[in-house]
Amino acid sequence: MPKGSLELTNARREEIISACEKLYQTMSFKEITLKDIAGATSFTRTSIYNYFQTKEEIFLALMQKEYEHWTAELDAMASDYTTMSVESFSSMLAHSLEKRSMLLKLLSMNLFDMEVNSRPECLVDFKRAYGASIEAVRGCLVKFFPDMDAKAQQGFLYAFMPFLYGIYPYTTVSAKQRQAMSDAGLNFVYMSVYDIAFNCIRTLLGSK
Q1: Do 168 and 105 contact (CB within 8 A), yes or no?
Q2: Rounded CA gap, 54 and 117, in Å?
Q3: Model-level pTM greater than 0.70?
Q4: What are the tens digits of pLDDT across the range 182-193?
Q5: How far is residue 146 from each of residues 22, 82, 138, 142, measured CA to CA in Å?
Q6: CA distances from 94 to 105, 148, 169, 189 (A)
C-alpha cells in the first residue's frame, strides 16, 4: 500500500472502482482490462497495483460497494416504518432491487472465478458486505413479520438471496436473444426487475 493518508487511499480506490463501473456500463467483463481501467483514472496502470492486484479484485470491490448501498437502504426501511403488510414489503423490497441494476448485473457473472482471483483480504471485505445485506433482509423480516420463526426466516433467505443471481438475465435481453427465443418457438414472458422480484417475494411470504 502506498504511503499517504487514509483519505487519499480511499479516494484513489474509489476512483478505480468508479472507472470500472463506468466501463462496465458499455463493455463486458471479458473486454475490460486493467489498462482500460487505468485509462479512465487520473493515474497509471502501475499505480493501480498499489490498491488492486487483479481485475477481479476491482469488480469484487464494486460489488461490495453495491451491497453496502443496498444494505443502507434496507436498514433505512426497517428504521423508517413501524409495520408493513406483505404487499407493501414486497413492493418496497422489489423497488430497492430495481435501483440496483449494477448489483444484479454483477451477480449474473461468474462470482466463483472473481473470488478465486482475489486476495483473501479482499474476499473477507466482500463477504462482510454480503453478510450485512443478508442480516439487513433478516432484520426487515424480524420487524415486519414477527410471527416468522428462525426456520421460516432462514427458508426465505435461502430462496431469496440465490434468486438475485438470475434476475438480470431474465430481465435484460438483447435483440439477438429475443430473436433466438422467437426462432426457438419459446413463448417467453418478459418482466421488469420490479415485477419479477415482487412476484418472488410475495410468493415466498405467502399469506403472512
Answers
A1: yes
A2: 7
A3: yes
A4: 899 988 888 999
A5: 41, 12, 11, 5
A6: 16, 20, 16, 18
3-state secondary structure 29-61: CCCCCHHHHHHCCCCCHHHHCCCCCCHHHHHHH
Q: At what angle do helices 193-205 and 86-98 cross, to 10 degrees?
A: 150
Pick the CATH number of 55-205 from 3.40.50.720, 1.10.357.10, 1.25.40.10, 1.10.10.10: 1.10.357.10
pLDDT by residue (tens digit) across 5-63? 888 889 999 999 999 999 999 999 999 999 999 999 988 888 899 999 999 999 999 99
Asked if 83 and 147 touch (Cβ cutoff 8 Å), the reply is no
Residue located via cell numbers 444494505: 71
Within its chain, how far is the Cα of 105 from the centroid?
A: 7
Q: Using alpha carbons only, what angle is made at residue 142 by residues 194 and 74, rounded to the nearest 5 degrees?
A: 40
Q: Check if the beta carbon of residue 114 is closer than 8 Å to that of residue 56.
A: yes
